[in-house]
Every structure is written in structure tokens, then in C-alpha cells.
Amino acid sequence: MSPKAVKALEPAATDPSFIRNFCIIAHIDHGKSTLADRMLGVTGAVADRDMRAQYLDRMDIERERGITIKSQAVRMPWELDGQTYALNMIDTPGHVDFTYEVSRSLAACEGAILLVDAAQGIEAQTLANLYLAMENDLEIIPVLNKIDLPAADPEKYAKELANLIGGSPDDVLKVSGKTGAGVEELLDRVVQRIPNPVGNPDAPARAMIFDSVYDTYRGVITYVRMIDGHLSPRERIQMMSTRAVHELLEIGVSSPEPSPTKGLGVGEVGYLITGVKDVRQSKVGDTVTTAAKPSTEALPGYTDPKPMVFSGLYPIDGSDYPVLRDALDKLKLSDASLNYEPETSVALGFGFRCGFLGLLHLEIVTERLEREFNLDLIATAPSVTYEVTTDDKKTVTVTNPSEFPGGKIASVEEPMVKVGILAPKDYVGTIMELCQGRRGALLGMEYFGEDRVELRYTMPLGEIVFDFFDHLKSRTQGYASLDYEPSGAQTADLVKVDILLQGEQVDAFSAIVHRDKAYAYGVLMTERLKKLIPRQQFEVPIQAAIGARIIARESVRAMRKDVLAKCYGGDISRKRKLLEKQKEGKKRMKMVGRVEVPQEAFIAALSGETETKEKK
Amino acid sequence: MAGPQLIADPAPLDGALPGSVLDGADARMLSVYLHVPFCRVRCGYCDFNTYTATELRGAKQSDYASEASAEVAFAGATLRSSGLPARPASTVFFGGGTPTLLPAGDLVRMLESVRTSIGLTTDAEITTEANPDSVDADYLTTLADAGFTRVSFGMQSAVPHVLATLERTHDPDRVPLVVEWARRAGLQVSVDLIYGTPGESLDDWTRSVDAALATNPDHLSAYSLIVEAGTKLARQIKSGLVSQPDEDLQADMYELVDAKLEAAGFSWYEVSNWAKGPESRSRHNLAYWQSQDWWGIGPGAHSHVGGVRWWNVKHPAAYAGRMSDGVSPGAGRETLSAETRELERILLLSRTRDGILISTLPADARVAVAGLIADNLVNAEAALRGRVELTLRGRLLADAVVRRLTV
């Protein structure tokens, strides 16, 4: 048993050999936050009475969903064999869309705790992050969590982990973040196994940004890992990608409350505050150096995160448009990967075309907008980026079906992803069927332990942004997990399908789909709309078309009777109120040409409510 | 009565009318509506203000003629004291409920009170609604002798299963008999039909229309069944016991009754009403549609005098209390703005055969008329002669027409 360290090491003057930098790789609900909290308690970094459940996850939405969106770093003291160490735990975002951010967090560490639920085993996305950690040459400490659960099967999953990373099942530590069992041994293991950081203290300062967070009171807080040299308070620092120079207002470490220090030295992890108000000025992966003695060589691995998935966000109540604009402006301060521009739609009014890192990112942003800003939103079907080349050799980048060029198309290129799916072996057939239907090409298949399989595919991203995950979950009773990463582009026979109401195109329903699926999409949407569009005084044809060619057609028959032929006697007021109510209802209709469509119909058609209702 | 709640002012207890009602009063006729809020049973589709014996909470049917006559006297006094010109009533209409649930003598007493307190024009149209099973030849003769000129029978259908769904209890075979008795008593006869009842086929409806025509009435009303919130029928539809009336079938039914009636020598003069000739039209209903003045007597009855509308307390017991206190039974009232009066004028007149003079329409509405002609909703020839008159299609889509005329 190791005692709590009596006195923590002084930041800015810590010998790198007594520093350990590590992160925890885990699936969403495998107990990472609970374990992190337990470590804070065991090391004395947080007094028990201050312990807020899952201390590290700040945002409500994270706590409720049990996932970590923004990472942070905590410095904890720990003593082993009479020597005090400084452990920096770098919290990684736990989801598929944040691969780049994860890779930067990993690059800030020398080791990683691979944390796996002892009742569930490893999940696809943990696997992806594990591969990433191994590529970065991180020392991996395998740990099974939740051993207190009745359903825990540590022997089985220890074997699985040993198979994955090599070594013996006996090396797998067994802990319970909930009860604290095994946590002290784990901290000892971190000190023993993870290499200390190495760097040149005399070289020009180089610090890698692995996270930046917007704080209402303090502006942007930038989290860095020092590689070489030293940073001191009041120094002028420079961002190497933009050459922008800022004055360092505060430098310090989180333990876990921010505490200012005399600086940061080689191998240390801490935060910088410059008064900057926008996280875009402090980009993850960028290198921080000093203006006085700048480094000439930036650290490797920096890229600008590129949005992969696009969707139009519209307020259901059109008068909320300014609220949505302000809300996006605010979110942007803390989310460097969110981008958006104004867009108008006949069907949905005024909104924004937004770019996201992936589907979860889209979901999180939408949910934050709804929750934190009290907005009711409708999102158009997600789309990806296509490179469309026309016959006259012009190439257009299309992130919105409305930008798809008319006329002759020479080729369309679509983004591809490598997909990893981990599931019990009984579901292999149904998963293959699903992936085949989404134009997936099987890359490989591998067994883990006795009964679980990893399937690897390349697939068009466009095929998975639209309800793929829902289908995967429902076909596997929720047992399958999914991970994907960008993997180039391919040319494919893609077409734009438009939906027309009485000959007028309804922009929100246009979609870019594979030619083989155009008919199915057309039938789906025309049938949906037929059920949703109220009868008009004239027949309303609903058509799906590729260019000028109609591929599917339905129609809403003309309304023949719209008269309250009832005897209301002398109660004229009632008759008038009914008329006024009717007129009020008409005012809320959107006009597509001469066709009056209630906004609810557009929303229901986009969300597929009609099919859901029928299933019930 | 179910339906939208009116936001309005409370009605003053003395019933006094504002001076604004005098404007144009010389050009308006006066009518009287007498509501009889009693029924033996409540029909499943009905949301009118009517009560069965067990729902009366102490109000007595036998006292009703006296109470209503007291309001008639109150009406006469109020109209006189408001400075309106003396105008005898040109129409009187007894509606319900079931007016004929009262003894004929009660209806006669109430009519006499109108004659005494308000007066009747020499050619006054005096109508009562009647249930085919609550009148006999003597009853009808008594009414005719007292000055009634017209009776409107609630036939609704000739088909037993349709009557059963509507929960009408009369024997359809009795309708030709009562019509014949009314005719012998010298009364004009109208029959009411309802179409679009759940389960009613086009054949059923044909039988009903033919049966109604076979009684050789002077006037016929055909109303589409409207499922009103809060009725038993609405609950039955919600729970899936009966099916929602189909609007396309209702349209077929409307076209069928219109064709049969036109062939039999009737002409439509309002969306739901047909008459053998101009003299057979219901002048009382025309008074509503032409925004004339009328005083509604009885619980829940609505009145209109010169742009002021009011309505009485709904329950017969509350009504009886007001009458015994000698105060107005008014529950709420509204004074219509010029815009609202214009809206109502278009709403009501556009549904009549005589229609609206295009020259009286605001500019926007006159522009809309061209579109309505193009959409075959408004008769082009009538429009050339200066009137908005609905086509057959326009009558079926009359609400849409009104919306377009009142944008």
C-alpha cells in the first residue's frame, strides 16, 4: 500500500524523471470518470468532501450522457518507495468524432491505461483508440474495471486483453472505481511502468496544445504539454501555426482547481491563459513557443480539423433565428471544429448550414443548442462533402445537395471511411448484410476471445451518416459498437434526387444518393409526403426526379369539401371564430408554389415519423 | 354548447343597448328567435344547448313559456327604451332543443307574447322546428290557428341504421304522415336532412333524399354531419367504435342532393338550403345571413342588434333565476368593429345564392374574385352581372372561398 504523498512536488521545478504523463482509454460507460474521481480522492488531489461525482466532466450534458467531450489534465501527487512523483492524468474525449483531439491527447502522454468494463469487454471505439496509442508507442497498462459487478467476468476479459496487447492475463489489473479496490496498485503501476518524459531543457520552448477550452470569465484556457525548454509567467508566447503573439497572463497546473505556478518545465502538463476569447486562436495540435526565443521547428502532427458531416439547422419557430445565430456564435468560442453559415430553405425558412466532425458532434451541438439556449430545432438529413466534376472539367465542392451542379456530370467523388465494428459473433451475418447494403467492402475480420468479432470495412461516409448506427444497434440488440476514420475518397455513380411538389422543388428534401438507391429514396420520400401534405383545392403531384427525369410519383387528391355546412342558427360569432381559426392555421403554412404545407409536415418527413408511427 | 370560447365583455344586467345600434336601424328588419332547450333524449352528434329532464337541476319545462314570455316583454321594453324605431317582427322562429316537446298551448302563449310586446308584421313568417314523433294533426292545427305559417321537421334520414347511429328515435314512416297533416293545417313545410353519418352509404343517402322529396315539401335543408368536440359521437370515433365521416363521400352526397333537388324543381339559395320558389325560402334564416337585427329568447340564445351581439346564460336554471330577478339573461356580449362586421357580411352573404355585390367588396377581395372564377369556385356569368355567386364546386369549398375573399 502506498501512502498519499506528504508534500507534492513544486511545479516548474520538477525533475522530469519524477513525472508520469498518462491518459485513460475507455469506452463511454466503462467507468473512466468514476475511476478518475477515485484517483483524485486516493491521491488527495481533491478532498473527499469536495468530491463532486465525476469531477472531470464539467458540462451537464456530459454528465447526463456519461461521456466526456472536452478533455482536461490533472496533476496528482503520489509516493512510491519514499519518492514523490507528479502524475499528470490527461482526460481524453471518448468518442469517434474526436479522433484528432484524441490523437493529440495521446501525443501528450508516455503511457495509457486501457480501461475495460469487466462485464462487457472491449468496444470498437476503445480498440481504435488503443491502436492509436500503440502507434504512438505509448506504454499500455491493461485494467479491468467494475470487478464489483455480479456480471463481471474478469478471467474471460483478461484473456481477451492479453490477446490484444500481448503479455499474460495475470498482468491485467483488476479494479473498481466505485469501491476503490485496486486503485492504489494501479497508481503504483503507473509510476513503475510508464516512462518519464524526456526533453531538452535548454532548447527554445516548445509546448504542444492538446486542448483549449472557453471559459466565460477567463477567456480561452489552453492546455499544453511541455516538450522542450521552459515557459514563465508574463512571457510573450507565439503560436507557431499562425505566428500570433500573446502575452501570458497566467500559467499553472490543474490539481484539479487551477493554480498558478512559476512556469512549466520539460515534461510538465499545465494551462496557459492569454486573454484570447476564441478557441480558434489556440488550436489543438499547435506548438507554443516564446516570442523572445522562438523555436524554428514545430512539433509534428498538427492539422486543421476538417468538418466531415454537414446539416442545416433551422429553428422550428422562425422567430428564434436570431437566438440560434447568437447561440452558434457562443458555441463557436468553445468548439473550434464547429463551423456554419446562413442558409435559407423554402420549406424550413432561415437557418444555418453547419459543418461537424461527425454524427455525434452534430448530435452534441444540436442538443447543446436545444438545452443551453432553449431552442427547438430541426436538422436536415446529414450530408458529406462531394467533389463533383462537370463535363466541362469544372470541379465543385458540394456540401449541400442544392450546390450540386446541373447539366452533364463527368464524375462524383465521395469521402470514404474505414469502419471497425465489434460485436458478438452471432451477429456477423446481419452486420455483413447491413454493410453490404451500404456499399461496404470487407477489409478483414478478426476474433477476440471466444465469442467476439471485429469486422473491418471501407464504406462511403455518406452511407453511415444517415441512420447506419441506428440500424446497426437495432440489428444487434445494441451489442455492436462502431468506430470509423477517414480513408480517402472514391468515385461513384452518385446522383441528386429532387423532390417536387406540383413541379416546385422542395430544397430540404434533395439528397445525393447512389444511383441504385435513387428509386428507393424517391419512393420513400414521395410516400412520406403523400401522408403528410393536407389536401388542397387541386391535385398535388409529388415527384422524385433525377434532373428532368421523374423516377417516382404520388399525388395528393384534390380536396372536394371545405365547408362547415351546419346549422349554427344565430350564433354568428362562432362561425366567425371558426373562420378566424382557419385563417390563423393557413398563416402558419409554408407555400411551395401554390401548395400550402404545414411546417410540421416537413419536419415529420425529415425525421421519418410516418414510418415510426406505422411500426407502433 | 361546445366550440370556441368567446372572449367578450359581460352583458349589462339592464340589457341596455349602446347608441351605436341606432345607425342604419331603419333599413334593418327585426326577427325573434325563441329557443326551447329541452329534449327527451340527447342525440349523440348534437352539441346544441339542450337538456333532458334529468339535467334540468330544478328548472321546470312547465314554467318555461312564462319565463320566455318575460324575456320577450323585457326585449320589447329594451328595444323601445334604446330609441330604436318601432319595428314589428317580420319573422319568428322556434328552435331547440325540441320546441314541440312543450304543449302546443305553450308555443302559442310565447308567440302571443311576441305579438303583444314587440308586434308582428302582417305577413310575418312564423316557424317552429318539430320532431316527427312529437306532433300530431291537432297539435299542428292548433299552431296554424294561432298564426304559425311554417314547420320544419327534423327528418335527418329515412334509413333506420343511419337514424340509429344518429340516435334519432322517431319512426321514419311517420314523416310523410306529419308532413301531410302540416300541409292540411295550412303550414308551409321544410324537412331537414343530415348527410355523412358514419356508416351511411351513397345508396342510403339516395333513399333519404327520395323519401324527403316524396313528402313534397316546400323547402329542404341538408346539413353535413360535423363531429363536434365533446359529443358522444366524437368519443365513439376517437375510440374507434364508429368511423370518421369521409369528406369525399360527403362531397358526393352533396352533389347528389343538389342534382335531385334541382331536378325536382328546387333551387339552392344558401349552401345548405333549397326552396321550391323564392316565396318558400326561410326568411328567418335569410335575416341571419343578411345581418338583420334579431333577438334570441331563451337559455344560450344569441342576439344581434346593429353590430352588438350578445348571448344568454346557458343553463335553464340560471336563466329561470335571471327572469325571476327581472334582469337581463345576457351572459356576454361583444360590440363588433367595422372590420368585423364587414368580415361577417362577406362570410354570411357569400354562402347565399344572391351573393355579394362585387362593388361592395374591398379592393383586395375584388382582385381575389378573378382567381376564384379561374378556379371554378365563383360563377363567371353572375360575376359579370356584378355578383359573387358560388358554383357547385364553390359551395363545397365555401370556407376556402371566404378565406380568399377576406385575406
Provide an overview of this structure.
The complex is a heterodimer of chains A (616) and B (407). Chain A is an alpha+beta fold and 616 residues long. Chain A folds into five domains: 16-193, 3-Layer(aba) Sandwich (Rossmann fold); 206-290, Translation factors (Elongation Factor Tu (Ef-tu), domain 3, Beta Barrel), CATH 2.40.30.10; 309-379, Alpha-Beta Plaits, CATH 3.30.70.870; 403-492, Alpha-Beta Plaits (2-Layer Sandwich); 498-510 and 519-615, Alpha-Beta Plaits (2-Layer Sandwich). Helix content of chain A is 26%, strand content 32%. In chain A, strands 10-9-14-7-8-13-11-12 form an eight-stranded antiparallel β-sheet. The longest helix of chain A is centred in the C-terminal third of the chain and has 18 residues, at 515-532. Residues 61-71 and 612-616 of chain A have low confidence and may be disordered. Chain B has 407 residues and is of the alpha/beta class. Chain B folds into two domains: 9-289, pyruvate-formate lyase- activating enzyme (Alpha-Beta Horseshoe); 338-407, Arc Repressor Mutant, subunit A, CATH 1.10.10. Chain B has helices spanning 61-81, 104-117, 137-145, 160-166, 174-184, 202-214, 232-238, 247-263, 283-289, 316-325, 338-349, 363-374, 380-384, 392-396, 398-405; strands spanning 9-10, 30-36, 89-96, 120-130, 150-156, 188-195, 219-224, 267-270, 273-275, 293-297, 302-305, 308-312, 330-335, 356-357, 387-388. In chain B, strands 8-9-7-6-5-4-3-2-10 form a nine-stranded mixed β-sheet, with helices on both faces. Chain B has a four-stranded antiparallel β-sheet with strand order 1-13-12-11, with no helix packed on it. In chain B, β2 (30-36), α1 (61-81) and β3 form a beta-alpha-beta unit. The longest helix of chain B is centred in the N-terminal third of the chain and has 21 residues, at 61-81. Chain B is globular, with a radius of gyration of 21 Å. Chain B starts with 8 loop residues before the first strand and ends with a helix. Residues 1-6 of chain B have low confidence and may be disordered. The chains are: A alpha+beta (616), B alpha/beta (407). Chain A binds chain B through residues 537-538, 557, 559-567, 569-579, 581-583, 586, and chain B through 1, 3-4, 6, 8, 33, 95, 192, 221-224, 226, 247-248, 250-251, 254, 271-272, 288, 294, 296, 301-304, 309, 311, 334, 340, 343-344, 347-348, 375, 377, 393, 395-400, 402-403, 406. Chain A: One of its GO terms (molecular function) is GTP binding. Chain A: InterPro entries: EF-4, EFG_III/V, EFG_V-like, G_TR_CS, LepA_C_sf, LepA_CTD, LepA_IV, P-loop_NTPase. Chain A: One of its GO terms (biological process) is positive regulation of translation. Chain A: GTP binds at residues 29-34, 145-148.
